[in-house]
Amino acid sequence: MKYGLQFRDVFAAWESILEGVWITLLLSAVAMVGGLVIGIACAAARVYGPAWLRRIVGTYVEVIRNTPLLVQLFLIFFGLPSFGVRLDGLTAAIIALVINLGAYTTEIVRAGLEAVPKAQVEAGHSLGLSGLQVFRYVVMFPALKAMFPALASQFVLLMLATSVVSQISVEDLFHAASIVQSRTFRDFEVYTVIGVLYLGLAFAFRGLFAGIYYWAFVRR
Amino acid sequence: MIREFGLIDVMYLIAAARWTLALTATAFIGASLIGIVIAIARILPFAPLRWLSAAYIHIVQGTPLLVWLFVIFFGLPLVGISVNPWLAAATAFSVYGSAFLGEIWRGALVSIAKTQWEAGASLGLSLGEQLRYVIIPQSIRVAIPPTVGFLVQLIKNTSLAAVIGFVELTREGQLTAAGTYKPFAVYITVAAIYFAMCFPLSQWSRSIERKLDVAR
To answer: pLDDT tens digit string along A131-151?
Structure first.
């Protein structure tokens, strides 16, 4: 049997697809900001904190990094209601993504912080800067520059990984694909189009991060 | 009837984990075979080959694994290959893994000093022989820690095969959760089994990395 590819029905559903793109962008943006905040806090705790805090953060990082995102998502969405915590899909997705990305960024930021030579911190103190000022101007800025490429690629991976939230029926780009598929039965065409869209998003994010890098670190 | 979540279910989940491992092993072999070709194509002094392999890596790394699973699951029948979830998953994970391994191994290959290539050439070795006898043996040491690290990613990502109905650890967890109405206990167990598989590998990867650092 000969199969002719037909994309017309897929493109006819551009509105649901566009809505999916929007949700995917929203999820990615929230997760990136949340993950970065958690990452910086946890990395600072892991490098400068007391031993018990270091151990807690270390456990968090290892547990998250050694279990699949999909299982973490199921645990939060299907598991928490056992304790009376009932979350809608979008909230559960955001929580899972932030917790997940937070663990990865912690490791990246920690490596960046540890790469700053100790003598520079001491130089900052000897200039009379406060602890917070040293952290902000002497440690964080060069550390951010060093870790930026790793962070950027982790963020792009996260944007792609948000596709799993479709499995708890959050209406992201991938979910839009399954809706269009069930309506048109053009499964191969739908997933190809969605794949190209994700590729476009990945390129856009890479371009954006390259722009931010240039603006923040190269230009000045 | 709702049954209890008991020891027997835990045993079933552990038994299902062997399919996770089987899929990981199959995908790793497939990914290695394509990955080594990609890695070498990336460093050969032949520009079109380099562009092609770079484009391959960009495209695969720029699309979600789920999309690959579905495109292959629905696409292979169009070219006349009948698929089951196992074949689709193994193919999709091989493609996905090959891009990452290709990039990791390219990094390992270019980490070897240029003088090593030149030394090989001055001994009269051909390009293939330089690769085979001089460059690859040295780069394997560099490649091992990130490769083991990627293996952890692969184990975790096989959970996505559950979505196309391949019964591995996560899918078995979904089925058990549906049967027992104890999703929290089930998914904690599932997570613990993944952790038991991944954590030793992560630690191992880190320890060989540290040893290599000292050796250098």
So the answer is: 888 888 888 888 888 899 999
